[in-house]
Amino acid sequence: MKIEIEYEASWRNSFLDGSNDEALPKKGRKFVGSITALKKNENFIQREVTHNTVMGILNRLIGEQRKLYQARKDKVYYFKNIENRVSCKDEVKLENSEIVYLRNMSGNTDQNSFTGAIKTDDVIFNSDFSVSFWGVLELELDELLKFIVHGLDIQSCNILDPLLVSERFSQIGKFKSLAVEEKVKEVLEVLEKKFVGTNYKNNKDEIVPLNLYCSALYLQLDRLSEQFDMNSILTKSGTITGISKRLFTKKDFMNYFTTGDKKKIFGNPYIKKEKIKGLGELTSMLKKASGTLIIEIDIPRKEAKELKKLIDNAGVSSFYLGKKGLAYVTSISTREVKEG
């Protein structure tokens, strides 16, 4: 038996993790098509027509509405003894790449944006301790290392504003990682003793400056608490909003100092950029394919006629293949398929 299906604009990428062969998690499958997620190579998922694709199509053609893994569990699954006799040939006639904008319906928020007016009159920027506290961020890296180990009397600060603090953190985030030299080891000893369990190294065993600056703020917080009541700038859990011992999260930090809510992400381009040695920067986008899918089923003519009758009764002549690609059944032949 031979079934030919013509399809147009079949998407050849997936934006969700997990598998269609498994039960759907309670919270659904995770969206991995965001800009942040696509920074990890494993989240740029490419798809091709597989045996499961073909079996899903055949089940759809006879009117089966359940997912393939659910249908297969049924004791009277129609294709139970036929699956190993099904083969296919995907004849792609046209393939192109397109930039599409995807909307994450789970309501993610922009990492670097905010809404509403900025409130600069907060106690964290207008107290007697503010200069000494935020001035830590203005220290050069060498000064910061000395500050962590020996302390330093900070007399001036030019970033007593949430936007300026955010900009400074952006600059710090671009600082090059440090090798673990003698003076750095001394800094690590102080911080690791003070903040047990905090990791300051990247996967190359180098020290990330951003981590040091974040922890230095908490170190200064502790030192200033001997002179001032610092509880007014802390959350119930004893942290500074948007700043951990290692990281700065702009959206959380700015959300505390603005009149609006966090800015939701309504769409982002599905695109992956990666630098490959010798080739430079490569850009990957959504692939769309058009062509003909030929399905061959090695069954006796009597069974082929029975299957064709089921397909005719179901009345399914068109369906989606690969998310948005529309497919049409163009021919069904119950004649014997001869090799060659």
Shape: elongated
The biggest sheet, with number of strands, parallel, antiparallel or mixed sense and barrel status, is: 6 strands, antiparallel
> Helical element count?
9
* Count of distinct strands: 10
How many whole angstroms does the radius of gyration measure?
Answer: 30 Å
User: Fraction of residues in helices?
Assistant: 25-40%
For the record, give the distance between the C-alpha atoms at the N and C termini, rounded to a whole number.
Answer: 15 Å
Strand content: 15-25%
Please characterize this protein's 3D structure.
The chain is α+β, with helices and mostly antiparallel strands and 340 residues long. Helix content is 27%, strand content 20%. The chain contains nine helices and ten strands. Strands 1, 4, 7, 8, 9 and 10 form a six-stranded antiparallel beta sheet that branches. Strands 2-3 form a two-stranded antiparallel ribbon. Helix 4 crosses helix 6 and helix 4 packs across helix 7. The protein is elongated. It starts with a strand and ends in a 7-residue tail after the last strand.
